[in-house]
Amino acid sequence: xxxxxSNEAFWWSLFSAGGVxxxxxxxxxxxxxxxxxxxxxxxxxRASYEHLLGLVxxxxxxxxxxxxxxxxxxxxxxxxxxxxxxxxxRHHTAPLSxxxxxxxxxxxxxxxxxxxxxxxxxx
Amino acid sequence: MGAExxxxxxxxxxxxxxxxxxxxxxxxxxxxxxxALAVFLVYLLYWLRAIGDGYTAFVQMVxxxxxxxxxxxxxxxxxxxxxxxxTWFNLTPKIMPMYVAEEKVPDLWAAIIMGYLPCSAVxxxxxxxxxxxx
Lengths: 123, 134
Fold this sequence. Notes:
The complex is a heterodimer. Chain A contains 4 helices and no strands. Chain A has helices at about 10-45, 45-55, 60-85, 95-115. By secondary structure, chain A is an all-alpha fold. By secondary structure, chain B is an all-alpha fold. Chain B is flat and about 60 Å long.
């Protein structure tokens, strides 16, 4: 039986990149937003805000955040597509692919827009 | 895929097939972490948006994060992401075996070198950057 032509390898490469990026960064990001930011906020909210703004608008950090968040969207999209197939969405998978990869693209594009346009001066 | 259906016999399989065995359940738990990731990524974007919108928006975001529903969801997301990291690091040497002088490095060591160590370093740098003052 011949294999059907597919773009699986391309999507898998993005899935894999996002898998590594999210495995490396997400536990720490969760500790930051769940524990560190709320507790710093109690000490000195204004200083905590300005420090955070300076950090996320530093260009190396912007590019890192964009790479991690953008690739993680493709990781999630590809994996969700396969979960849905495994749960029974086996035929007519075109809308599923559109939803998953389209959603990932929309997420990554939104991330790019938000991260690249963050104003570096306190509002 | 597509509209064609294979004519070969396929055993009937309900949508809850993965509940039958512990291995299948672990597989599905691992795959399901993708949903937690997708939701958390959107939540992270809200955080970044709030930081960009200014001090008032940041304060509102912190207040929102303190609500018990949000704390519970964050705790669940943390569990899911930790599970993703652990399963990912443990699978890495199986997909990408590591060799030193023609000798295969044991999977656990390869997972530590390619996964757990860099992840610890990354986490330390992230937490240090956010927590350092002055």
